[in-house]
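call fold(seq) -> tokens
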Amino acid sequence: AFPFAWSLNYLPFEIARLPQGAGFLNVCLWIVLLAVLTETLGSKSGYPAALALTLCFLAHPFVVKLFSAGFADGYPILITTAIGIALGKLSRLERREWSCLGFACWIGIGSRYQMVAVAASGTLVVAYYIIRTKQWHSAKHFALGLVAALVLSSPFYILNWKGSGNPFWPLLAPLGASSQSYVSVVATHFNVRFTGWSSIDILGRSAFRFFTEPYLFPLPIATVALVVGGLFSRDAGSRRIAAFGALFLGLWVVMSPGIYPT
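ret:
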């Protein structure tokens, strides 16, 4: 999920007139994700059940669609998985791995705005762990990775600022401002269409649609159930992963009450 991952993944194949290449790379990411999850879950108790759940997730039609076409969604899924695995074993991380975790948490913001919620959630869990255990040296290494990720992600925001005067365009753009260009007007309306407005009514209808959407079922229900169940787990690593998921879901609802699935 390096900066401009979508462009770097897709455009070279377009130039070579082989657009299927981007889809092939995503299939490779799917295989890597399967191998990583299988190996990670293999070290824990209840391996057969965990492996079965993993295979059900990866074989879900919606997930297969994301990983079988030239979409960018495979990158965020893979990097979020890596963050979750690292959070589950914070007590066993070496110095270099702490830097890698800081890098993984924040590098995604160079490709997707949604990854800001992932970055913030992961950082909050790490900060709580460091404060609680007083591992201040780990904070230094995490910060090094974070800074490196921000530097590598900055071109996306610099070019946005240079082209529109707003590094987060089309986010934070004043809706209906007379100074907006036609492109900005279209972009802000498109953005609002998916983020929605903050109201109990919209949030309730969005949640109902999210949990009953045929092409997603039962992923949303299973995800929320796993997060809630993980918060009450006896294993500290599982609780950290669940807290990571809960924080992300909370930020998602606050920042995007429309709860648009992708």
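The two ends are 16 Å apart (CA to CA).
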